[in-house]
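Progress note, sequence design subtask.
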């Protein structure tokens, strides 16, 4: 048994550090960094949307590459490569690279984060199944929420100390490097060997094809619906008095709400079923997006931040898990299709949201579009659940 498999809890904590550096910092630190970057004059709102979309395009490319046999066969090597690129591309954002240069760096960061997410998740889920400790996954994904809260704290404290955007990016890179130590040493579980099955793959449940198509489109709606607010929420609060403090609390709230969300929603899904849980999360997220953009005071914006953070990570996890149960014989292909749909929504959201905000002077129209998209996602998920319930094949939990 490898060192990585010797202590499941230590492995899960190392995985949480990996996701904190690659996802919370490598992908989402850009959100609290937007105000100082905009204030420096080197970036416009439309440019900010392009840079954000480039990151999500990189994630799409990385997620598709990570499933290829060439990379997956030596996942420890490529996980470490993803960690190195996450740290390096974060620190390199300190360069005065302009919109095109920053977009290229964010593309690399997005691709690296996908490699880290895919291979970290694979290792943790294998060990969790081996040791019959399924909640280890919730611990791992809490790293994203905790990391988001950490980025809020770093930016708030740094700006209070007079640091400019390049200095803050260097600080983010240093923190990512420190977080890399634990996964570098512990996440060393080799990819499982190929096993020849008996050729009797489980038949998909009745209505599975219809349900999966609707779930995939709903997943694209999630990608578009959450990402405009997740990218620009700290810019939305600039209209409030004492804006730097509210920027901090808005993004901190997203992170603190996201940290326990997977665990809480997984328990709820076990009680009411995965599809009802996903629909409820979609509706709450739509309310959160509306509050963040349309609320007239800090309470509304913080409530919106809490609803956003408390739902988008959970819908991501529940949606993937539900989809895997629909096509049990092709889980990798199913995850790839879901990832493509989600990523396409993410890519379109920031670019369109930034463009609309620059033309209209606010995020109201972009946020209403996001709300409508989330409601469509809720309706499609409910329809997917009905397609299965009509045949009696909805499971009590997402797996």
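Output:
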């Amino acid at each position: 048994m490898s060192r990585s498999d010797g202590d499941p809890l230590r492995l899960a904590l190392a995985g949480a550090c990996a996701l904190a550096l690659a996802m919370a910092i490598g992908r989402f630190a850009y959100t609290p960094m937007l105000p100082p970057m905009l204030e420096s004059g080197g970036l416009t709102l439309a440019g900010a949307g392009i840079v954000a979309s480039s990151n999500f395009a990189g994630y799409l490319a990385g997620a598709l590459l990570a499933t290829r046999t060439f990379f997956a066969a030596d996942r420890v090597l490529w996980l470490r490569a993803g960690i190195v690129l996450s740290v390096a591309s974060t620190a390199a954002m300190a360069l005065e690279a302009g919109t095109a240069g920053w977009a290229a760096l964010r593309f690399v960061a997005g691709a690296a984060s996908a490699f880290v997410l895919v291979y970290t998740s694979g290792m943790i889920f294998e060990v969790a199944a081996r040791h019959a400790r399924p909640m280890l996954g919730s611990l791992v994904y809490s790293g994203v929420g905790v990391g988001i809260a950490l980025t809020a704290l770093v930016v708030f404290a740094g700006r209070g100390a007079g640091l400019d955007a390049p200095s803050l990016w260097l600080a983010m890179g240093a923190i990512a490097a420190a977080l890399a130590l634990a996964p570098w040493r512990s996440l060393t579980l080799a990819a499982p060997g190929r096993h020849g099955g008996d050729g009797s793959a489980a038949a998909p449940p009745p209505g599975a094809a219809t349900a999966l198509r609707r779930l995939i489109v709903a997943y694209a709606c999630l990608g578009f619906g959450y990402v405009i607010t997740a990218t620009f929420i700290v810019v939305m609060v600039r209209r409030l008095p004492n804006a730097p403090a509210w920027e901090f609390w808005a993004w901190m709230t997203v992170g603190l709400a996201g940290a326990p969300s997977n665990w809480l929603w997984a328990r709820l899904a076990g009680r009411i079923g995965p599809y009802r849980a996903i629909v409820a999360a979609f509706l709450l997220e739509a309310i959160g997006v509306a509050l963040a953009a349309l609320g007239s005071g800090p309470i509304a914006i913080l409530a919106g931040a809490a609803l956003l953070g408390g739902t988008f990570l959970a819908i991501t996890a529940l949606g993937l898990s539900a989809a895997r149960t629909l096509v049990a014989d092709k889980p990798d292909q199913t995850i790839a299709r879901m990832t493509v749909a989600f990523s396409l929504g993410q890519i379109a959201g920031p670019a369109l949201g930034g463009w609309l905000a620059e033309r209209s002077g606010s995020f109201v129209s972009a946020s209403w579009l996001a709300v409508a998209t989330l409601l469509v996602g809720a309706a499609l998920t409910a329809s997917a659940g009905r397609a299965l319930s009509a045949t009696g094949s909805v499971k009590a939990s997402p797996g």
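Residues 77 and 207 are 40 Å apart (CA to CA). Work on this subtask will continue into the next period as scheduled.
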